[in-house]
Amino acid sequence: MEYWIAAQNIRRFRKRLFTETDPEKRRLLRELIESEMDKLQTDFPQMPTKH
């Protein structure tokens, strides 16, 4: 469940990043994306992938 939440957060933040024009908000979104990606790599380093 935590993996799904982090992945959805990344998706939502990336979508907002494409439409946001304020530089400070864009910086914050990039930081949030990086934080969620770090969370995925730390908590789920070897998540199985579908083939």
Strand content: under 5%
What does the main sheet amount to? none
Distance from first to last alpha carbon: 21 Å
Question: Helical element count?
Answer: 2
Mean pLDDT: 87
Helix content: over 70%
Which of globular, elongated, flat, extended, rod-shaped describes the shape? elongated
Contiguous runs where pLDDT drops below 50 for at least 5 residues: none
Number of strands: 0
Our count of domains comes out at 1
Rg, Å, rounded? 12 Å
Structural class: mainly alpha
User: What is the H-and-E element order?
Assistant: HH
Characterise the protein shown here.
With 51 residues, the chain is mostly helical. It has one domain. 76% of the residues lie in helices and 0% in strands. The protein is built from 2 helices and no strands. Helix 1 runs antiparallel to helix 2.
Task: Name some characteristics of this structure.
51 residues, 2 helices, 0% strand
In short, what is this structure?
The chain has 51 residues and is an all-alpha fold.
Q: What order do the helices and strands come in, and which of them pair?
A:
Elements: H1 2-19, H2 23-43
Helix pairs in contact: 1-2
